[in-house]
## 1
Amino acid sequence: WLLLQKIVKMIKMRSDTALLLVDVQHDFLPGGALAVPQGDEILPIIAGLQPMFDCIIATQDWHPAHHGSFAANHPGTQPGQQIQLEGLSQILWPIHCVQGTPGADFPTTLDRSRWNAIFQKGKNPLVDSYSGFFDNARRGDTGLGDYLKQQGIRRVFVAGLALDYCVKFTAMDAVSLGFETLLLTDATRAVNLQPEDGQRALEEMKAAGIHCLESKDLPHYV
Ligand code: VGL
Ligand code: ZN
């Protein structure tokens, strides 16, 4: 038992490190309103990652029913179409992650008791919010950046859904705020409205200084 404890301790990340779980919610999983293909494959991987981290933060897409990113709120439009929303280019989505609905909740297979905080985003109906830090206009701030700094976090590992939207935007904001940012490529999946979107997101992230790795390589980053 002591030996086991020792091994578990050995694979703990340093205390300046956090795991950021982006929008791991029912509506982004198979069967959900905005299902990400193979999104469920990341669940056992995340479950395996969690014990290595003492600081785990989840983000939660949390829209009012009248949110401007929903095609249903713009008569005559379809999901996937692009519009201008308050001067910003906006892709229209199916109704998803409405506050208080089961689709906005987290799967019970994830041990939420080990999460230090949940940051909700997308509450302002006039602007979408892909990133866990700022809205797409970069005006609204969820407080996640200040929270991480207060906790002494300097390095973040990012996982979740979807790679080409909320994961990319969250990781890009993290690196822009000065956090060493690493993407766990096996613990994310892309929507791929266009077939290459996921691949393009990876390239953009690498160009911004985000390091990409697989979970199996985490022991090299303790
Ligand atoms: C997301 C589209 C709309 C995401 C959220 O979590 O990637 N994508 N809202
Ligand atoms: Zn959303």
## 2
Amino acid sequence: MTMMNDNMQRPVMLIVDDVEINRVILAQFFKDDFDICEASNGEEALIFVTDHPVSVILLDLVMPIMDGFDLLARLKRDDRFRDIPVIATTARTENDSEVRAMELGAADFITKPYNPTVVRSRVHNVLSRLENEWRKLEQTAQSQEIIDMRRRIELDALTGLYDRDNFCRKAAAFMQMDAAQKYVLVFLDINYFKVVNDLFSVETGNLLLRSSAAFLQSVASGVGIAGRLEADHFALCLPQSALNIEAIIAGLDGVVQSLNIPQNIRFYAGIYPVSNVFLAVSQMCDRAHTALNTAKGRYTQRFAWYDEKMREDEVEEHLILRDMAGALADGQFSIHIQPIFDIETGEDYTGEVLVRWYHPLKEFIPPARFIPIFEKNGFVARIDRFVWEESCKMLAYEKETFGRVIPVSVNLSRLNFYDEHLVEYILGLIKKYDLEPWMLKLEITESAYTDNMHLLIDTVARFQKEGFKILMDDFGSGYSSLNMLRNMPVDILKLDMRFLEDIQHDKRAQAIVRNVVNLARDIDMEVVIEGVETKEQLDFLRSIGCKNIQGFLLSYPMPKEKYLDRFVHKPEPLKV
Ligand code: C2E
Ligand code: CA
Ligand code: CA
């Protein structure tokens, strides 16, 4: 029987019908899961199957030249074709043709006009039924070789679970077999798995994966499907009634403990309640993964369900991706500037330029929402260039109109560092607007350092050589803040805002902030503290000698016209 091509390409579906529109409709239903081939009569179909491996045939019974009955009879008489499942397509009125087709060996039939759900589930049922029969046959087969070969193709070599492709196929077939049931798709991931390989050994890592896989297989055995999608990502497809997520997590904790691996290396789970069994399983996995990400990092919550809010976010992400390029061309992006004060002199010290997107339908979309999406698809590089150019235009305007320039800092997404002409590009802007490098400070987020240390160190040095000042944004949020300070002499540190949360009561946070400020002073760096919202925070910062402060307490970000008027044209004294 030809269920799949040996080389694991997509299965081939042959649609035989003399009416083109019928072929087009059916092809539409199945194009995501099969390679579709078409024939307009029995004779063409027979020629096709002689030369090509076919997984399933959809066969119209009433056709000129060689009709469906004739073809069916020939296929079933021939050893080469006997096992290809044939599903007859009939009009509602042709009751006795259905009986005749089944007698001739059709696996099932579908009636016109086609209902996509019914059609798809019939085809999938037929295929899974045959697959089950194949499996039974396989179990009793004499030839161990065939079994081994099939396993090698479908199963992940390390753990013996289905690999991603096969998990998706098997899970789809499993759910579609009884589409009326409620199912869940569970995505499991080991937090800090990389640490296991680094700290122990690759063998320990592999042992952890194999033991976890064996446990998950025992969970799925008889009730569902287990797979290893990639690396330390596992998935389960189960009827919702069979899911006991606490027990699964406890079992996996047991596996980790039995290998004497530290307790902070642990499994997290995301659960997607399947609402439509015909949705692509890879998409179900993505949704479960989205849910998982909300649980990860929290110590007490080990799993999360995909919910309505996540669905809305997904819709919004889709909208953002759809609209971004048009929005840039359409002038929906603009810059706002947040002044940063020197609280000793009470004067404006500099400003930070922040991008704003006013979408005609959604109105304001915060950058925290769209920047991460733009970072994934690279569009952030275009937005950043837009922001730098707008900033330079503003500085040129200050120079020309007021005869003085207050420097601003702009944000550089980590992606920019992969552009080898980055330094030249920004230098080009400075020349184009007749500015000087000290006027445009560059903020680099600390996490960029972990991406590609050497590239970053090199680029920062080139910028500094040209006279640019570099700020390290969100300092203290990453894993190697101090190492980075040693290797990359930036000019200004911007402390991560989270250190300020609750600083009045948190003695440890106070000590950290105080010492970071001292450390910076020791190595001749300036410090900017951002996110200052309360008078108490400001008093504390003042008491430890911080000068440069940014935060809602002193000023919100504002449109450039307002900023120019209030801080460049007629500077307002600081009121706090
Ligand atoms: P960031 O670079 O850390 O920018 C500071 C963020 O803190 C800004 O949020 C600012 O409005 C906010 N903020 C300022 N003072 C306070 C305060 O007192 N309390 C609180 N809670 N927040 C305060 P915004 O404008 O929403 O930007 C968020 C993030 O989006 C930025 O964080 C930055 O990572 C990114 N972003 C913004 N504009 C750009 C841009 O032009 N390019 C790139 N690549 N990223 C940008
Ligand atoms: Ca920033
Ligand atoms: Ca920041």
